Amino acid sequence: MNHVGLVGRITKHPVLRELAGGKVQTSFSLAINRTYKNQNGEVDTDFVLCIAWGRLAETIVNHCGKGSLIGVSGRIQSRNYDKEDGTRVFLTEIVAEDVRFYQLKPTEAVAQQNIVPMPPVDFILP
Prior knowledge:
Layout: E1 4-10, E2 17-18, E3 24-37, E4 43-53, H1 54-63, E5 69-82, E6 88-103, H2 108-112
């Protein structure tokens, strides 16, 4: 079984990338506080790389900005690649399959314009 659930804050504004074949993807890092304090009495933080595809990626980019508190449910994926200097880089990341929005911060486009997003409003039609 390969299933992970995390709750943390996005460390920078997610960016949507369009790949060959029309697929879209975003990657982001979650800052997750540990539940205990270290020897200095401070709470350590883990930074976990996450990746999302398709409509889920679009939703994250459109609604989440730096500092948004989200929950990510998905699976662990490991991969590697060779850098130009010949060294091999190993990555472990979470492939998001479901995301829950707990506390949203402005997206990058909204933050650059210094606009505060309005909360959703339900309209009742006569």
